[in-house]
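Example 9 (inverse folding). The structure is encoded as follows.
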């Protein structure tokens, strides 16, 4: 039931990211068209686009924690036994929890400091640029704590203990290996013709 709730929450966050990206495109593209075509513009376009980009980045980071898509070094973990992989996964989650706490503390402090400050054009509080750090750190902390509980209860398969990949190319290669080899027609051999 908890996994289903997290899955629904993740879908909602993905929809939020898509909406934010669409709004950014509309604001920036619309501003360019208005400036060059009508010698006008949307005054708040730049500030709102920057705010949406900050929110998108932090929400995306929280989603990446759930889906284990952050890049990392896994060459050592791959050669360890299940027990070694489990210990490494627990230690890495503990370190990530500490880093998440630091992110929360820093974002909260900056939010409090910047709350009375308003942005120059839109007039919104500058705290809204730091609230995404608070939201993302809470979400990441809960996800990491849940992952640690699953690890301690042994509810994770051995292949899921390797929670990062060294590069995007390696991730794509592993996905293609899981799909199975694809048969491709052999390239015909080029014919060499003798010079006259």
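The amino acid assigned to each position is listed next.
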């Amino acid at each position: 039931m908890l996994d289903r709730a997290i899955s629904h929450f993740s879908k909602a966050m993905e929809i939020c990211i898509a909406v934010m990206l669409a709004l950014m495109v509309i604001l920036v593209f619309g501003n360019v068209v208005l400036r060059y075509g009508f010698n006008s513009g949307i005054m708040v376009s730049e500030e709102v686009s920057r705010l949406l980009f900050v929110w998108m980045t932090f929400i995306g980071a929280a989603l990446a924690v759930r889906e284990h898509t952050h890049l990392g070094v896994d060459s050592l973990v791959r050669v360890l036994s299940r027990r070694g992989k489990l210990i490494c996964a627990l230690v890495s989650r503990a370190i990530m929890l500490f880093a998440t706490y630091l992110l929360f503390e820093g974002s909260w402090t900056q939010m409090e400091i910047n709350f009375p400050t308003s942005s120059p054009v839109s007039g919104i509080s500058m705290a809204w640029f730091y609230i995404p750090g608070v939201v993302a750190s809470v979400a990441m902390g809960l996800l990491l704590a849940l992952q640690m509980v699953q690890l301690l209860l042994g509810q994770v398969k051995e292949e899921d203990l390797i929670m990062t990949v060294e590069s995007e190319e390696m991730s794509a290669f592993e996905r293609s290996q899981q799909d199975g080899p694809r048969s491709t027609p052999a390239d015909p051999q080029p014919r060499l013709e003798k010079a006259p």
